[in-house]
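# nightly structure sweep
# worker-07 picked up a monomer target from the shared queue
# config: single-sequence mode, recycle default, output format = structure tokens
# input follows
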Amino acid sequence: MRRRAFLALLPRTRAIAAYLLLGNFLTESSGKILFVLL
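# output follows
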């Protein structure tokens, strides 16, 4: 039961992890762009 729920959650957690990594990368790059502009 618990294992099934875990397996069902796996794709979601992977999507969230990818989303967070992408967001972190975007904020970092935008911060660099702002730094260059200033």
